[in-house]
Design brief:
The protein has helices at about 1-5, 10-15, 25-30, 50-70, 80-85, 90-105, 120-140, 140-150, 155-165, 175-180, 195-205, 245-255, 265-270, 280-285, 290-305, 310-315, and strands spanning about 20, 40-45, 70-75, 115-120, 185-190, 215-220. The chain is of the alpha/beta class. The structure holds tryptophanyl-5'AMP. Tryptophanyl-5'AMP binds near residues 40, 54 and 165.
Length: about 325
Amino acid sequence: MERLTGRPLHPFLRRGIFFSHRDLHEILALYESGTKFYLYTGRGPSSDALHLGHMIPFLFTQYLQEAFQVPCVIQLTDDEKFLFSKDNNKKLEDYQRLGWENAKDILAVGFDVERTFIFRNTDYIHSMYPNILKIQKAVTYNQAKAIFGFDDSDNIGKHGFPAVQAAPSFSSSFPQLFGSQSNLPCLIPCAIDQDPYFRMTRDVAPKLGYRKPALIHSKFFPALQGENTKMSASVANTAIYVSDTAKQLKTKVNKYAFSGGGATIEEHQKHGGNCDIDISYKYLSFFLQDDQELERIRQDYSSGKMLTGEIKAKLIQLPIK
Ligand code: TYM
């Protein structure tokens, strides 16, 4: 990627945060031979603002768009969140509104306005519908149940939804963007939880005469409470939202960010901190761009020279780019 784009690799790649892929090498080989691809990613609007975990695929997709100078489509699945929500008091219109709100957070990442198409499913379904139908006909109920764990008490909308998330993987779903180019290669950056949708998509693609989309997956950005958790929008004090004020951010980090430091200053100075479990260090390893500075922090914290309050202060003042 460095050779093709002439740009340094993104820290998410250098540090293995994007850690797995399907057919990325094919996308790169096609690009090298002059065939451009398009990027596809998305968001299920379930909260007023995105949290830092959600930002990972968007930050990375924006980097890919800038580095490769390619188009990007962003799907807002207001339909998905309406169908899958257990909260029967929330109306479809509430999810449509959240989609609109979330679009602002996503575009603020810096997508190229000339090359980016962001859409809510309830507005744009019409153009994708022919592909949705073809996908639905090619996947059996048994397959959908095996992939997504649906059971007989789930509403019927859920069973049909995976085809809606699959459809943007095929460029013919966007005639207004791609015109007669109906088989453009597609690369999908997302966290690993979205892979089942695209395993299904890759299964049906050849049956419809389409190319399989390529994928690149990220690990989860952990919750404040600790490693091996996933930052999730449903528990407010585990997540940092892009709408949090500087003061809220500071309080959350100081109060909740799990520390790998010693129980007392003396103990910390004697034994050092444990970067493997320290959330502040973990977050810095996602967002601090400078490799040397990150390594210095790792050494100073592990040796006990840097205290927990100091590593938290470092994180609190860090801008996210
Ligand atoms: P959603 O809204 O749950 O998540 C949006 C994107 O953020 C990723 N993600 C995370 N990444 C790192 N750390 C976390 N803690 C974390 N939590 C969520 C998700 O993998 C996703 O990439 N059904 C999808 C919306 C969608 C989509 C797509 C996503 C529609 N089409 C195409 C990716 C690609 C959803 O509800 O995402």
